[in-house]
């Protein structure tokens, strides 16, 4: 009986080892998708900072602050780097009795990642994203019978995102990444600086 249990444990260990080996020797793709989500620490320009402080002062409010990252990439430089297009940014939402408000910054443009210690999706990498910025604020007010929405869009602007991360293959065609980024996004009326901690998937 002990002999059978030992053989079974050995078989399971060999299977796990083969999975890890396959993940480490992951496939080289012709293109890659990336999706990430995380938490940003944001510093606004004066007018917007006063607005968020006012929203936080409202009694009974709840808030949610999150960063996002979606991109499509193609390998270059013998798979040492990725070049593509990405949408990055964050949303800052507040909700209270009968109202909710959101502040949103989105950046769209080219994105490049360069890996120092291996091929794309394996090891330490740096990231550079310049792009156009769209910023908009939205407020919904409801009295229980009627809902009114106010939206202010500020479409013109420019931003840049600089990141340092580490990616690791967990399956032949899937990689996980941890990234720390700095974003500086400016619209015609507002400015936001952010330090963003992102968890991503590249496949």
Structure overview:
The chain has 203 residues and is of the alpha+beta class. It is 17% helix and 64% strand. The chain contains two helices and nine strands, in the order H-E-H-E-E-E-E-E-E-E-E. An eight-stranded antiparallel barrel has the order 1-2-3-4-5-7-8-9. A hairpin with a 4-residue loop joins strand 5 (123-142) and strand 6 (147-154). The protein is elongated, with a radius of gyration of 22 Å. The chain starts with a helix and ends with a strand. Residues 1-9 and 16-25 have low confidence and may be disordered.
Secondary-structure blueprint:
Elements: H1 2-24, E1 32-44, H2 46-57, E2 62-76, E3 81-96, E4 99-115, E5 123-142, E6 147-154, E7 157-171, E8 174-187, E9 191-202
Antiparallel strand pairs: 1-2, 1-9, 2-3, 3-4, 4-5, 5-6, 5-7, 7-8, 8-9
